Amino acid sequence: MTKGGMESVEVFTAEGKGRGLKAQKEFLPGDVIFAEPAYAAVVFDSLTHVICHTCFKRQERLHRCGQCKFAYYCDRTCQRAAWLNHKNECSAIKRHGKAPTENIRLAARILWKMEREGSGLSEGCLVAIDDLQNHVESFGEEEKQELRADVESFLEFWPPHCQQFGMQFISHIFGVISCNGFTLSDQRGLQAVGVGIFPNLCQANHDCWPNCTVVFNNGKIELRALSKISPGDELTVSYVDFLSLSEERRKQLKKQYYFDCTCEHCKKQLKDDLMLAVKAGESKPSADTVKEVIQLSKDTLEKINKARMEGHYHEVVKLCRDCLKKQEPVLGDTNIYLLRILNIASEVLSYLQMFEEAADYAKRMVDGYLKIYHPNNAQLGMAVMRAGVTHWHAGLIEAGHGLICKAYAILLITHGPSHPITKDLEVMRVQTEMELRMFQQNEFMYYKMREAALKNQKIQVMPEPSNENAPSLFHKKE
């Protein structure tokens, strides 16, 4: 079954997994399999005043809707483009007196679109909203209570003059949002800013080692090939970060998405040995020592999260340094608990402009990631990019340029050349290449010129560390 620009993929019944997507032609790494606009999408409640409600870009100055005083736009162009979807929302917010939560707003936008276009297949959609999975029957008691509260709030918000839908169908829509809501990121892909429903993308099944990735680019979700895909191959994406033990990933998938992962990496526990690696050699630590250090690592991570929430970054650095002293004689270079501490240490030290120490930790972290992640993993590419920038700040131009080039090669596949983050990286790559040539010609002059340049401009402060991970694929509560 294909429709409207989706001729390269087909919906099929995947054994043991329900519906899935398979390729109708060959794709190479970096190819865009399809780009899909949202059926409906909204900005997160906490960001409604700083993110454009049409293009989801972060802007310093936004224009507010003069009617409802709630929606914000980059300019008149974005405002006009939004009117079809915002018109009913605008009058409903004025009538209700305030804007409801993001889930209510998204459900309302979905139902207003169905009111306009009908509940069948929309143009370019392979599956109707009615037919998307909702998993309501798998909800726990707490989730059922939240669902009932959402339905009640929705009915208070929904205008009486609009088409009336049954309670069961409204519950279905909230179930669809819970199970199929995709995270939308800002223009640089660094912060989650909203949630949307993409019916075609919803058909892609999970694999911990997928052949596709998803990126939000220029107002659409792109499904991009990570490896060579042959006609008839199933198209898969990963719903969770790979940097967890197979048992932990399976628990997370079961809790959040209601299925048991049967991918090869989970069944065979591939890479688990690397993620639990301990120091090899004659002085191999005892099992009790390893257990003790892992527990210390878990306890430290909890303390670090608390300190980060309170903005006590020097305390975070101290906790990381103390933990690393205990970890280094015991845990292997690819152990996930070591890598998590190295990641936090490099990020916070960069923010505090302690770049040399940050660069050392970032390099060790990247070396570990390269042995664990898929070579074309988007999160790997972003981590390598941050490590390259940190090395540049530390004045380590050779290593910095090498890392930036490596990151650029990954992001060309995962994000594509037109994505803003890839464009930024290309500028950095060209700049560091010029600096490297200067360094190789005259090392002394390079450092003198670099020192003078840094004195004449404000020091670029690294972004403040956040407890948020990179935007995840699905918008799900933990």
Strand tally: 12
What is the terminal separation in angstroms?
35 Å
Strand content is 5-15%
In round numbers, the mean pLDDT is: 90
Number of helices in the DSSP assignment: 15
- Biggest sheet strand order reads 1-2-12-9
Low-confidence stretches: none
The residue fraction in helices comes out at 40-55%
Structural class, please? alpha+beta
**CA-based shape:** globular
SSE string, helix = H, strand = E? EEEEEEHHHHEEEEEEHHHHHHHHHHH
- Biggest beta-sheet profile: 4 strands, mixed
Radius of gyration: 24 Å
Write the layout of secondary structure elements.
Layout: E1 9-14, E2 18-23, E3 32-36, E4 40-43, E5 63-64, E6 72-73, H1 76-96, H2 102-117, H3 141-157, H4 167-180, E7 181-185, E8 192-197, E9 205-206, E10 212-217, E11 220-225, E12 234-237, H5 246-257, H6 264-267, H7 272-275, H8 287-309, H9 313-327, H10 336-351, H11 355-372, H12 378-393, H13 397-414, H14 420-441, H15 443-455
Parallel strand pairs: 9-12
Antiparallel strand pairs: 1-2, 2-12, 3-11, 4-8, 5-6, 7-8, 10-11
